[in-house]
Amino acid sequence: MKKQQQLYKGSLNTIIMKLLEQNGKMYGYEITQKVKEITAGEMNITEGALYPALHKMEAEGFLDVEMDRVDGRIRKYYKLTENGVKETASRMEELENFIRNMQTIVSPNLKPSF
Amino acid sequence: MKLTTEQIQIIETALNDKCNFKDFDDVRIELVDHIATEIEQELETNTNSFEQAFVKVMTRWNPMILPRTWSRYENVPFMVSKLWKRLDWKFQFSTIPLAALFSYIGFQLQEKDISIYLYLLPFLTVGIVSNGYLIYRKITNKVNSTLSMYSLQKIYQKTFVMLAFIVMNIFFFTAGIEKSIIPVFWPTIYISLLMMGKAWIMHKHLKIENQLLKVM
C-alpha cells in the first residue's frame, strides 16, 4: 500500500485538478474524502501533501479561491482558473499517455479503454 | 455534531499560539475549517468528547504545521515555509543568474560607449516603484495571506539595502568614476528585479486579501 502511495504521489496535482474540473469548486477536506470515496479507500491523500500542492498551484495561478461562511467558520474553496483548465487538459493527456505506455509494458495484449 | 463557536475558537487559538499561524489568515482559516470538520467526524463516529477528539486530531496535524527550528524560516509554520522555499527558488535564486546576465549586457554596452547609468535607470525605476508599492501594502494591509507575507518579509531591511546601492550609484555618477560602479552594478540590478518579483506576487494575489476582508 505504501509503495502504491509513492506511485500516486507524482500525479497528485493532476488528480486534484481533475477533481476540480469535474466538481467546480471544492474545499480541502472534501478533496481528501472524494479521493477516498472514488478509489474505495485505496488512495489516501494526506493533508501534508494536499495543502502544499493546493497552495503551490494557487501561487502559480492555476487555482482561484472563494471563501464562504459555513457552520460558524470560514470555508476556503478552490476552483480552476482559465490557465488551470488548460493545464488540466495538458496534464491529463500526459497522464493518459503514461498509463497507456505502462499498460503496454505490463500487459502488452490488453488494450486500454481510452 | 456541529462544533460551537467556543470550540472553533479553541482550534484557532491553538493554531495561533502553538504554530504561529496568526500572520497567515488564509491558511489559518482553511485549517480551522479542516480540523473542525475532522473533529466533528470524530465526534460522530467515535463518540469521544471534544477534548479527546481535539487532542487526537491535533496530534496527527502537528508534524505538518509546527514550525521547524532548523528551517530557514524558523518561526513560520512548516506548511507555509514549504511554499516559501519553493517561491525562493522561483523568485530569489533564479534572479541571481538573470541579474548576472543583465550586468553582462550592461558591461558590453559600456564598451560600446553607452552610459552604464542610462542602462541602469530603468532597473532602478522599476525597483523603486515596486518597493514603494510593497511599503504601501505593508502599511495599508488589514489582513495577511501567505503570499503577501512572503512578499513583505524583511521589506524595510531590503528597502535600506536598495537605498544604499542607489546612493552609491549616485555617488559614482556625480564623481564621474564610471569604472567604480562595477562592484555595485550587479547587486543594484538584483535587488531591483527582486522587488519587482515580490511586488508582482503581491499584486497578483490581492484578490485573496479582498476575499478575506469580506468574510473576516
TrEMBL record, chain A:
This is Transcriptional regulator PadR-like family protein. Residues 16-88 form the Transcription regulator PadR N-terminal domain. It comes from the Bacteria. Transmembrane segments: none annotated.
